[in-house]
Specification:
The chain is of the alpha/beta class. The protein contains 12 helices and 22 strands. Bound molecules: manganese (II) ion (2 copies). The site of one manganese (II) ion has 3 residues, from loops.
Length: about 450
């Protein structure tokens, strides 16, 4: 028997030259999505534009849709759901792929601007699981919105265009780092020290707050805002660099925000390819996953279930949910030879071995997570294999080394079976994360096969 033992395959052994060309071309579109979508709002904006170009319309609660109709719903400009209506009854269930578009970053505090020792700076409050030492001494951009009390919303981006200035958080020079160097990594850098350098020219017209005045004058010129407007803003500081090919062979992508735009993009693009699916297919681009999915735009909010219920159009909702199936599309950790001691090699994901499948996530004895039933996984793998999707098993590191969760558990709370899948990354949550191009391509193929065949 040739298949008696499980054998891992490498994408470069099985992909044809044409398929590889397609995969690399697909990744150019993905790189653009990353560059345009540096924060969740911009991802949603970009995704909605792509959807509208393809005939998607704003979802109308209460309207009866027919097979092939394409709709989208935006939740507070920070999350979005896209759907293609199927030919079967809603009671036969929905096929759902849920990814998230929020990413670890540094948010501005509500009252961020101050000056000290000849500098103007922004105070930040980090969002999500960052390693603070990675965010110093690297070029940063400012992205987000300022909502004026008049009702006007101003879109802010500084530092993304090549001609823009960038921002920066200073690091300690090694010559003076004796005390800092002896501290544990998690206390050597503090959240309160992640202050962003903005300006150094004092304004001439004032004796006090001369540096703050310089900053507000420049921001006022560009956006018409005053200091008070920071209170009604969602502004974040993110790495300024664009997505780049990684490696001599260009087989990988180095970029900010792979987690989890690398799964959001395939979820969306594969949905776009559907014309008349049997089941109604739904792609979710959620927010707030990095902080536990709570909050109005997170997967714990009822908007997701409410959207599905509205799609039921009077049919039995419980039956529809019970017959639905979901992929929680989120990144996992790729085996890293630099940190081999935290991985268990046999159950780790590797670059170029396809979409990574996590039966369960969680930590300390699978705590705080969902787990996919074997029957459900068997059906999904049958679909993957039928569509030529390369997949591999993944566990997030060694038992009791740490762990993590995804949106999967909030989907299973709705009585919808769910499996964690996604692209494996190196340096997850760092300002620049690495991913393999072929894995992204197989994630697209996996999402499409799931939508069409489950
Ligand atoms: Mn994630
Ligand atoms: Mn994450």
């Amino acid at each position: 028997m040739s298949n008696l033992l499980r054998k891992a395959k490498n994408a470069y052994e099985i992909m044809s030259p044409e398929e590889l060309r397609d995969a690399y071309e697909y990744c150019e579109g993905y790189k653009k999505f990353l560059d345009e979508g540096k924060i969740e709002r911009f991802c949603v904006e970009y995704a909605v534009n792509l959807a509208e170009e393809r005939g998607f319309e704003v979802f109308d609660y209460g309207k009866k849709y027919k097979p092939g109709d394409k709709v989208y719903f935006v939740q507070h400009n920070r999350a979005a759901i896209f759907a293609v209506i199927g030919t079967e009854s809603p009671e036969d269930g929905f096929n759902i792929v849920a990814a998230h578009v929020d990413c670890p970053k540094l948010d501005l505090k509500p009252n961020p601007l101050y000056e000290d020792s000849g500098f103007a700076l922004f105070k930040t409050h980090y969002y999500g699981g960052i390693r603070k030492y990675q965010w110093v001494a690297t070029p940063l951009a400012l992205c987000g919105v300022v909502c004026k009390k008049s009702g006007e919303t101003l879109r802010v981006t500084i530092g993304l265009d090549e001609s823009d200035p960038v921002f920066f958080i200073s690091d300690l020079l090694p010559h003076l780092a004796k005390d800092q160097s002896s501290k544990p990594l998690d206390s050597a850098f503090t959240g309160e020290n992640l202050n962003v350098l903005l300006a150094s020219i004092p304004a001439k017209e004032t004796e006090t707050d001369a540096l703050k005045t310089t900053v507000m004058k420049l921001l006022n010129e560009k956006y018409g805002i005053v200091e008070d407007d920071f209170l009604t803003a969602d502004l974040s500081v993110v790495p300024a660099g664009r997505a780049r090919d990684l490696g001599l062979d260009r087989s990988m992508i180095l970029a900010y925000g792979h987690d989890d735009r690398i799964d959001a993009y395939p979820a969306l693009l594969s949905l776009f390819e559907l014309t008349s699916p049997a089941k109604t297919c739904v792609a979710v681009l959620a927010d707030r996953e990095e902080v536990g999915s709570m909050g109005i735009s997170g997967m714990r909010s009822s908007y997701f279930a409410d959207f599905l219920k509205a799609l039921c159009c009077g049919y039995n909702e419980r039956k529809a949910f019970a017959n639905s199936a979901a992929l929680s599309a989120d990144v996992s950790a790729a085996y890293d030879p630099n940190f081999a001691d935290v991985f268990e090699k046999q159950n780790s994901a590797f670059f170029n071995r396809g979409i990574a499948v996590c039966k369960y996530t969680g930590s300390r004895g699978k705590g705080g997570s969902s787990e996919a039933p074997a029957e459900f996984m068997a059906k999904i793998f049958r679909i993957f294999e039928g569509a030529g999707v390369l997949y591999q098993v993944a566990e997030l590191g060694k038992v009791d080394q740490g762990g993590g969760g995804t949106v999967a558990q909030f989907i299973s709370d709705l009585n919808i079976p769910v499996l964690d899948v996604g692209v494996a990354l190196l340096s997850m949550h760092a300002p620049y994360e690495a991913a393999s191009k072929t894995d992204i391509y197989y994630t697209h193929k996996a999402c499409r096969a799931f939508f069409e065949k489950y």
